[in-house]
Design brief:
globular, Nucleotidyltransferase, domain 5, 5-stranded mixed beta sheet, 295 residues, alpha/beta
């Protein structure tokens, strides 16, 4: 049975494609997902992937965010330059056999050089839900973003490759023998404290996890959690000018976002955790209305 909808919201990342059939009032009428992420497709594959996923939905306008608009995506949506509103600049327009798709541009910062793509939509959704909010938004992930917001604009931002580092170190270095699985809250707290107090010792603290495993039977859950604490602690030390004395919101999936909220609390910062999917949909909805207003 065909799903009757007014428009389709799409979050197209590197590994997954997610879509929601939306009503005119912003209600979700249906949703679907697939493993057809940007990283699995050549340029000719994007249209068919979208058509397959939404085969039973009305042929309506599509608003898309994420890596679909990257240089390796369906079509490059040029970056807007900060400071600016999170939804800025003309959308890139592409078409499949069934749909015309508007792709939201990412944001860039010339100095120090930085880029984001997809997070701008979550930021826009958060601001739509929290009018006149000033402070810092943290978006944990493979590449965690720290974003300074003022007067509904992205003023500046900084990216930390903490998630990438954790995956690489725990899976592809000597620490893979010590940090393969499990979790221990006390271990995380210890690693966090070590890195925040002496961030310059990070490289030495990392190898000590292996040495303690060999000499003192440090268990994998403790070692893995301490590794996470060391890396997040080093990140907090590096981004202190962003979060110190600021109102902070953390947008992200439950477990990882909670680690950042916990880590910030140890520094006297009471951060608010926000659901990532809801902010993404709110941002896509704001982009849909922005696009409609230009017609």
């Amino acid at each position: 049975m065909t799903v009757s909808c007014t428009w389709i919201a799409v979050d197209w990342g590197t590994t997954h494609l997610r879509a929601w059939a939306m009503s005119a009032s912003g209600s979700i009428l249906a949703e679907a997902s697939s493993a057809d992420g940007m990283g699995t497709l050549d340029r000719a594959g994007f249209g068919p992937a979208l058509d397959r996923l939404c085969a039973d939905w009305d042929t309506v306008p599509v608003i898309a965010c994420g890596m679909v608009g990257s240089r390796q995506g369906w079509a490059e949506a040029p970056y807007a330059t900060v400071p600016c509103a999170p939804l800025t600049g003309p959308f890139a327009t592409v078409s499949s056999d069934r749909f015309t798709v508007q792709i939201i541009p990412g944001l860039k910062q010339p100095t120090p050089a930085d880029v984001m793509r997809g997070e701008e939509t979550q930021i826009a959704g958060f601001l739509a839900q929290n009018p006149n909010w000033d402070g810092v938004i943290c978006l944990p992930g493979t590449h965690t973003k720290w974003v300074h917001i003022s007067a509904d604009e992205v003023v500046s931002f900084q990216t930390c490759m903490t998630g990438d580092l954790f995956a690489a170190i725990s899976g592809h270095t000597v620490l893979r023998h010590s940090c393969a699985e499990g979790w221990d809250d006390a271990g995380f707290a210890q690693g966090l404290d070590d890195a925040l107090s002496r961030p310059e010792r990070l490289a030495a603290r990392l190898f000590s996890l292996r040495a303690e495993s060999l000499l003192h039977d440090l268990q994998q859950p403790q070692a893995r959690a301490r590794l996470s604490g060391l890396l997040i602690g080093a990140e907090l030390a590096a981004t202190k000018p962003y979060w110190l004395g600021q109102q902070v919101a953390v947008i992200g999936a439950g477990g990882l976002a909670h680690l950042y909220v916990t880590a910030l609390a140890t520094q006297g910062v009471s951060a608010t955790q926000v659901n990532a999917e809801r902010t993404t949909l709110a941002g896509l909805t704001a982009a849909y209305h922005l696009w409609k207003d230009t017609l």
